[in-house]
Design goal:
CATH architecture of the largest domain: 3-Layer(aba) Sandwich
Number of domains: 2
CATH class of the largest domain: Alpha Beta
Low-confidence stretches: none
Bound molecules: guanine
Helix content: 25-40%
Largest sheet: 6 strands, parallel
CATH superfamily of the largest domain: NAD(P)-binding Rossmann-like Domain
Number of helices: 10
Strand content: 15-25%
CATH topology of the largest domain: Rossmann fold
């Protein structure tokens, strides 16, 4: 068997076109231009590259955007002051603080400082709580993107056993909470497998849909999967590659060569979940702006 490739780039482009259309309508009818503020602390190359890509998407869609770059030594109170400034700015509808933050900064306090109505990452405890109890809210972008990928590739999770590998606040926990809701595009039976439970293969082998978000290159292989399952690979890992121009290449958390022989459908890395995260960020910003 050879799996169908779920083209995240194609689906993300489709969502961005929809967002662009709705943005033009919002501008025409109510004179609102969606505005997104990025806060980037430090010089982590991956974070810089993510923020650059997100800023480019804003340009493409005609959003107003501003990027504040802060030195790695920045004080907590200065980050908070900047957030308060964006909270009060009527031109800014979304605030994104790129994670991770340097160790001396209290991530929880930073997230809590963001006005939850502008929390386009869906990380504020109010949005997290709303998500868990099934209320309308801003949902974390990568998990929301995974739901869209499943639905738009014809893999409705309803009634399926989804095994999420990884329990992070950014992906594992929210994607589990999204997919188990008694709502359209969800209604799955969800298991979260993690490092506290020993061998993850005992769980992944039972899954109709596997979502892997653990940040370990190639950790899930074909022999850990049930034949015909759908595989969503959230990993973005830089591994050394002397033959590559920049000395590294990007691989996922799934061993693609073996997994694609067992699965019925699989997301590639790059070009799978990654582009969806950005598309959903744009959608969240449009919604926060009133669109
Ligand atoms: N770091 C890794 N993923 C994300 C994300 O979705 N949002 C933010 N703000 N930081 C991240």
């Amino acid at each position: 068997m050879s799996a169908t490739i779920i083209d995240g780039k194609l689906i993300a482009d489709q969502i961005k076109r929809e967002v662009k259309r709705d943005t033009e309508q919002l501008m025409r009818e109510r004179g609102i231009v969606p505005g997104l503020a990025f806060i980037l602390v430090g010089e982590d190359p991956a974070s810089q590259s993510y923020v650059r890509s997100k800023g480019k998407a804003c340009e493409e869609l005609g959003f107003h955007s501003i990027t504040e770059k802060l030195p790695p030594s920045v004080r907590q109170e200065d980050v908070l002051r900047l957030i308060h400034q964006f909270n009060a700015d009527p031109k800014i509808h979304g605030i994104l603080v790129q994670l991770p933050l340097p160790k001396h900064i209290d991530e929880d306090e930073v997230i809590m400082a963001i006005d939850w109505r502008k929390d386009v990452d869906g990380f504020h405890p109010i949005n997290v709580g709303k998500l868990v109890i099934g209320q309308k809210c801003l949902k974390p972008c990568t998990p929301a993107g995974i739901q869209e990928l499943l639905m738009r590739s014809g893999n409705d999770p309803a009634g399926k056993h989804v095994v999420v590998v990884g329990r992070s606040n950014i992906v594992g926990k929210p994607v589990a909470n999204i997919l188990l809701q008694k709502q359209a595009g969800a209604n799955a039976v969800v298991t979260i497998a993690h490092t506290g439970g020993g061998d993850i293969a005992q769980y992944t082998k039972l899954a109709d849909i596997v979502v892997v978000a653990i940040g370990k290159p190639g950790a899930v292989t074909g022999e850990m999967l049930k034949p015909g399952c759908v595989v969503i690979d959230v990993g973005i890992n830089r591994v050394a590659d002397a033959t590559a121009k920049n000395g590294y290449r990007i691989v996922g958390d799934v061993h693609f060569a073996s997994a694609s022989k067992v699965a019925s459908a699989i997301t590639p890395v790059p070009g799978g979940v990654g582009p969806m995260t950005i598309a959903m960020l744009m959608k969240n910003t449009l919604v926060a702006a009133g669109g």
